[in-house]
């Protein structure tokens, strides 16, 4: 009687196949491109990639969650995308942006100023530039950041300008502590114009506070549409959230605040130099930089 393979649980070769394969599959390399949503496996933190940078001799990836909180994690293995393990690797090298510019000219900063090669950031001045929100601050940093670090000027984001007078009183402008303020939607007849008129008329701030503004409802619109290969910014009906309305009209995700944050990253990424901004914004920022860095301040 010829031998046969006995039935039961020992009837198969337990080492057959890829027995070392993890239950969720092996990690695959994935570029940490801006906007990619991943989960950090150990902590469960879920967020969108906002940037990758070097820190302490290693690369880290910064992830922004739905509450707009950001945490940094070492780039590499230990992440999940749709439940599957991935190893995050650096994003692809940036390519010239579409539109009229492809980055600063050699020896120039994004604002067009002469670059100070090898220069160190100056100790912060007492003077400040205030803008209305985080997106305004990020846009100013993107274009004028190199200049402001050399000059030692700090840009601070306000939560709107409804209490601009109170914020100024708390700060206490003085010689050497000037404040330049950039206001959104500063057009005649608006709430913003009335607030600014009151500040300009206050004798306490004369020569110490300079308030300027741009005409756009939102600072997004100060980015030239051609930088994003758009003929124009979409029209958004009055009473509708401008940001959500724009995202919807462009066919971009617009369900929640995370989508707004990702949309802004896409817009900000298209800005490479001052030429990508409307002069009605860039001229006002230059005016504020001159005001807070005037000799003797």
Explain what this protein looks like in three dimensions.
This protein is α/β, with parallel strands linked by helices and 297 residues long. The chain folds into two domains: 28-89, SH3 type barrels (Roll), CATH 2.30.30; 128-292, no CATH class. 25% of the residues lie in helices and 19% in strands. The chain is built from six helices and eleven strands. The strands form two sheets. It has a seven-stranded mixed sheet with strand order 1-7-6-2-3-4-5. A four-stranded parallel sheet has the order 9-8-10-11, with helices on both faces.
Overall pLDDT level: 83
Distance between the termini: 105 Å
Integer-rounded radius of gyration? 26 Å
What is the H/E order?
EEEEEEEEHEHEHEHHH
How many helices? The count is 6
* Strands, total number: 11
Sheet having the most strands: 7 strands, mixed
Query: What is the 3D form?
Result: globular
Q: Please state roughly what percent of the residues sit in beta strands, choosing from under 5%, 5-15%, 15-25%, 25-35%, 35-45% or over 45%.
A: 15-25%
The helix content is 10-25%
Class from secondary-structure proportions: alpha/beta
Q: In what order do the strands lie side by side in the largest sheet? A: 1-7-6-2-3-4-5
Number of domains: 2
Which assembly state applies to the chains in this document?
A: single chain
Low-confidence stretches: 1-12, 95-101
């Amino acid at each position: 009687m010829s031998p046969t393979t006995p039935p039961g649980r020992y009837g198969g070769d337990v080492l057959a196949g890829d027995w070392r394969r993890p239950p969720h599959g092996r990690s695959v390399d994935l570029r940490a491109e801006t906007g990619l949503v991943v989960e950090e496996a150990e902590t469960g933190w879920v967020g969108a990639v906002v940037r990758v940078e070097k820190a302490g001799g290693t690369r880290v990836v910064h992830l922004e969650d739905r509450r707009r909180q950001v945490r940094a994690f070492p780039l590499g293995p230990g992440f999940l995308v749709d439940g599957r393990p991935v190893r995050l690797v650096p994003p692809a090298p940036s390519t010239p942006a579409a539109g009229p510019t492809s980055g600063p000219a050699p020896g120039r900063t994004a604002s067009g100023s002469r670059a100070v090669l090898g220069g160190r950031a100056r100790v912060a001045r007492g003077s400040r530039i205030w803008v209305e929100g985080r997106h305004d601050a990020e846009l100013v940093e993107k274009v004028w950041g190199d200049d402001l670090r050399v000059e030692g000027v700090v840009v601070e984001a306000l939560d709107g300008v409804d209490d601009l007078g109170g914020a100024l009183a708390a700060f206490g402008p003085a010689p050497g502590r000037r404040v330049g303020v950039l206001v959104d939607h500063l057009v005649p007849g608006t709430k913003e114009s009335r607030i600014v008129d009151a500040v300009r008329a206050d004798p306490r701030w004369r020569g110490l506070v300079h308030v300027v503004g741009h005409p756009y409802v939102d600072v997004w619109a100060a980015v030239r549409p051609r930088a994003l290969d758009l003929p124009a910014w979409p029209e958004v009906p009055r009473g509708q959230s401008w940001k959500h309305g724009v995202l919807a009209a462009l066919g971009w995700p617009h369900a929640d605040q995370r989508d707004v944050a990702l949309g802004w990253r896409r817009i900000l990424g298209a800005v490479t130099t001052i030429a990508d901004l409307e002069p009605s914004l860039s001229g006002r920022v230059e005016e504020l930089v001159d005001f807070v860095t005037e000799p003797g301040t």
